[in-house]
Amino acid sequence: MDEVDSRVLAELRKDGRASISAVAQATHISRANAYARVNRLIESHVITGFGARVDPVLAGQHSSAYVTLTVNQASWQEMRARLAQIPEVVHVALVGGDYDVMLLVRARDNGDLRRVVLEELQAIPAVRTTKTALIFEDFETIQA
């Protein structure tokens, strides 16, 4: 990774659908160089995929929360597999501090969010405690 790679990544973060020509022009490198760099970043797993940024409210997910879990750490792999099966859990982070895991949960409404936390998350044997912080509004800091 060098400074040019960082500029290429910044352009792709702004618009993952940008053409190689557009990336090359924005980063002031040749098209061939941009193509080679993007391919190398993909092959080295720096770029792990391409996706769409979705407005959760417009997509029908009107209730969002960060949910922290205190867990039996010996069961982390099993719990990780269970979390991956809950479609409302859109991000999982193993963290250090007062809790062990932080989740971003997006649900249809507060009733659905309640179901996810009380019926799905707390039903996982490794989960000892949960704490939920509702998100009133969120936004991305990546500028398009």
Mind explaining what this structure looks like?
Helices cover 38% and strands 22% of the residues. The two termini are 23 Å apart. The mean pLDDT is 93. Helix 1 (3-14) packs across helix 2 (20-27) and helix 2 (20-27) crosses helix 3. A hairpin with a 6-residue loop joins strand 2 (89-94) and strand 3 (101-107). The protein has a four-stranded antiparallel beta sheet. The chain has helices spanning 3-14, 20-27, 31-43, 76-84, 110-121, and strands spanning 63-71, 89-94, 101-107, 127-135. The radius of gyration is 19 Å and the shape is elongated. It is built from five helices and four strands. With 144 residues, the protein is of the alpha+beta class. The chain has two domains: 3-43, Arc Repressor Mutant, subunit A; 63-135, Alpha-Beta Plaits (2-Layer Sandwich), CATH 3.30.70.920.
Main attributes?
single chain; about 140 residues; alpha+beta; Arc Repressor Mutant, subunit A; Alpha-Beta Plaits; 2 domains; four-stranded antiparallel sheet; about 40% helix; elongated
